[in-house]
Amino acid sequence: MAFDVQTLFMRMDANGVTTILLPGLLFFAFVFGILTSTNVFGKNKGVQMIISLVVAILAVRVTIVQQFVLNVFGRAGIAIAVLLIVVILTALFVPDESRGPWYYTMMGIGGLAFIFVVFNAFSDFNWLNSGWWGEWGSTLIVAAAVIALVIVVVVTSGDNNNGGGGGGGAVTITPHRN
Hints:
By secondary structure, the chain is mainly alpha-helical. Helix content is 74%, strand content 0%. The chain has 2 domains: 12-61, no CATH class; 72-156, no CATH class. It contains 6 helices and no strands.
């Protein structure tokens, strides 16, 4: 019998590996990382591990959490693929000395992708039933694009000729003390 990766994934899915075990490990890692970094319960790793394990088990026990995690990470995979294409095309066609503004643009595209992933995941579960996204979504996108454009222009118009601007030097403001 030949080895088939698709069959392996289907069996993993049928046995709960992709719907329960992997999201549970993800929740465990997040909660354990937060508890470890904040030292809420001191340096006692045993307490942190038990709390993380309980939170992870309680989270994946509910089927809507399993569905939401699968939905969000499926959409995130698509967003990452789109960002990867943009990064590859930027690396191919933009010269090294001009890449600075492109990095900020890609961060903005990544932020928009995050917003789309979250809003679409919420709308799949009818959490945004009010029609707000359909009514205000285009306005929000245009506003975000204008803000991103302003940020890119401000960041890229830095020190060109002795402080940019009108050809004068940089202005330093110091407080006056009596």
